[in-house]
Amino acid sequence: MRQAAGLAAPVRRAARLAAALAAGAALTAAAQGAVPPRCEASAELVPARAYVGQQVHYQLRILRRRDVTSLEWETQLSFPTFRVEWLPTLSGDDRAAQGGETYLVFLERRALFAAHPGRLTVPSASLRCTSPDGSEIASIPPLVLEVQELPAEGRPPGFAGLLGPLALSFGLTPEKVALGGSLRLSVIAQGYTNLWSMPSPREALAAVPDVDVFEQPAELARDAGRALALRRYFHFDLVPRKAGVLPLPALRVPYFDPATGRYEEATAQLPALRVVEAPARPRAPGQPATPAGTSRGPAPRLARFLALAAGLGALALAAGLLLLLRGRRRRAPGDDLAGLLAEARAAAARGDGDASARAASQALQLALAAARGAAAPPAGLEDAPGPLRDAARLLAQIERARFAPGGAPPQLRAVEAAIARLQERRAGGR
């Protein structure tokens, strides 16, 4: 009995120690369970419903414990059913208190554009957060966006799927140009939606008579801030074919406004082109000057003829005057052609390809006008027979080389040969 009583005391002490250890373990486990997570993440789509082509913001809010030393993607964000544009990450002095801990707040953002209607999913992702005492994974749940098709009711003709609001502006330089020169027209569209889908306004410009239109590559600019602002630039070189005031059309671009649920139209009235006659060309080197006070061509012969034949009557006088005027008209184009061709050769010799092409273009236009008997070459000569067709094609090649990217001008000797054939055709009456 005495021995049993002696064993009971150590057993009771061991039981009390075990109970104390268990209580300590429970307290430790409870304390560990109360430690706040290193990171937490939540995401949302704004707005939660959208139209095809509308800008939607994906916002990922990350709470990062102050002792976290590393934050990296365990599973990357992905947007397989959207066009995605990056937006600046927002961070700074924002703080959030949670579970007795103060967290730093970061926002990861993307601009999303749905390409088709339906329930489109942004897949789940995850972050690995590391602190001096270990690391853990923070999960980012998947999100679903309800995307609506654009309404068929009220859809205007020519609608290309653009969303608004949309603003149009333009620039035209110079304000005035001489015949044979060109103007640069820039059309700018601005908005917050799918401007990469905007069609070029070239079709409206190509319908303007007496103006050749050469389009340059379009540009898309992005301004990423709280939202993604887009600007689409269209550039055109306009080459008038006659002098005067040449009106340009009003541009009209239909779009759908998600805020109102209605189709609207952005408009811009383009200014008229002011085109003046080209200045007189300088005399070609080596061309003899006409002394002041004297006449060119057959005028001296006409004066002698009038002195000798004054009594032949008004009929002979009128015939002589007619011959004089016709002779002068025949000489003027040749004089101008010589000057233009000499200018083209001189510009090519000094390496000024643009000036050479401009002078060659003007010479071809003058030769075509003389061959046609018109003040300016009309359109459609590409289908004309013989020298007219060849010269018109050369003229088009020159203009493409001047104003279209990647164009190559023809050799100057080919231009001179085409002009010579036009002059032969005109002399032969064909």
Report on the architecture of this protein:
The chain folds into 3 domains: 39-148, Immunoglobulin-like, CATH 2.60.40; 166-276, Immunoglobulin-like; 311-427, no CATH class. 32% of the residues lie in helices and 35% in strands. It has 7 helices and 20 strands. The strands form 6 sheets. Strands 1, 3, 5, 6 and 7 form a 5-stranded antiparallel β-sheet that branches. The longest helix is centred in the last third of the chain and has 36 residues, at 314-349. Mean pLDDT is 80; it is low at 1-8, 17-31, 290-333 and 374-379.
Tags for this model:
430 residues, alpha+beta, Immunoglobulin-like, five-stranded antiparallel β-sheet, four-stranded antiparallel β-sheet, 32% helix, elongated
Compact overview of the structure:
The chain has 430 residues and is α+β, with helices and mostly antiparallel strands. It has helices spanning 2-33, 202-206, 299-308, 314-349, 353-372, 386-403, 412-427; strands at 39-46, 49-51, 55-65, 70-75, 82-90, 95-98, 101-114, 118-122, 125-131, 134-140, 143-148, 166-173, 176-178, 183-191, 211-224, 228-240, 244-246, 250-257, 262-269, 273-276.
Structural class: alpha+beta
First and last CA, distance: 148 Å
Q: Whole-number radius of gyration? A: 41 Å
Mean pLDDT, all residues = 80
The oligomerization state is single chain
Helix and strand element order? HEEEEEEEEEEEEEEHEEEEEEHHHHH
How many distinct domains? 3
Largest sheet: 5 strands, antiparallel
Shape: elongated
Structural topology:
Blueprint: H1 2-33, E1 39-46, E2 49-51, E3 55-65, E4 70-75, E5 82-90, E6 95-98, E7 101-114, E8 118-122, E9 125-131, E10 134-140, E11 143-148, E12 166-173, E13 176-178, E14 183-191, H2 202-206, E15 211-224, E16 228-240, E17 244-246, E18 250-257, E19 262-269, E20 273-276, H3 299-308, H4 314-349, H5 353-372, H6 386-403, H7 412-427
Parallel strand pairs: 2-11, 13-20
Antiparallel strand pairs: 1-3, 3-7, 4-9, 5-7, 6-7, 8-11, 9-10, 12-14, 14-16, 15-16, 17-20, 18-19
